[in-house]
Specification:
Layout: E1 4-8, E2 11-16, H1 34-40, E3 46-51, E4 60-66, H2 72-80, E5 92-101, E6 108-114, H3 125-131, E7 135-137, E8 144-152
Antiparallel strand pairs: 1-2, 2-3, 3-4, 4-5, 5-6, 6-8, 7-8
Length: 155
């Protein structure tokens, strides 16, 4: 496994700094897609992570997303040196890639949607959602999407 094993809020995640690639042995990760990962690898507002739910396997592909202007290059350095702390992730939300279909125009849109099913950040998720800049409208027609989207991805 590649990446950096870190602890956030008492939970272990594998963190990938900007530009760091997941290796071929990582293809068994749930939700992982090579081409999509390549697009997200150097995204300025997110860092890719692998999480688990209860057991060490399976691993789930996701992203930590910030909309508060946090310095993620500095965070990468703190993670690499083992100095990252929970406070460094105060502005983050855990999100997962998903395809949604607009109920109005039927456009299929690839998004990063907040992962509300995992325990990471569960204790203050409501506050994080209120403070995060979320996307609410379909990029094709402007209709309300109804999911907590942090980013549109692809095309």
């Amino acid at each position: 496994m590649t990446g950096h094993l870190i602890r956030i809020g008492g939970r272990y995640v594998t963190y990938f700094a900007s530009g760091e690639a997941l290796l071929p042995q990582d293809v068994e990760v749930v939700g992982f897609d090579f081409s999509e990962d390549a697009e997200l690898r150097s995204h300025p507002r997110l860092r890719r992570v692998l999480t688990t739910v209860v057991r060490p396997e399976p691993k789930f592909y996701g992203v930590l997303h910030w909309s508060d202007g946090s310095d993620l290059v500095a965070l990468d350095e703190k993670v690499k040196s083992g100095e990252a702390e929970d406070g460094d992730f105060a502005g983050a939300l855990l999100a997962e890639p998903r395809t949604v279909v607009c109920g109005e125009c039927q456009a299929q849109v690839r998004v990063l949607v907040v992962d509300t099913g995992q325990a990471l950040f569960a204790s203050d998720l409501a506050s994080r959602l209120r403070n995060h800049e979320l996307k609410h409208s379909c990029p094709a027609c402007g209709a309300r999407l109804g999911l907590p989207v942090v980013e549109f991805i692809g095309g």
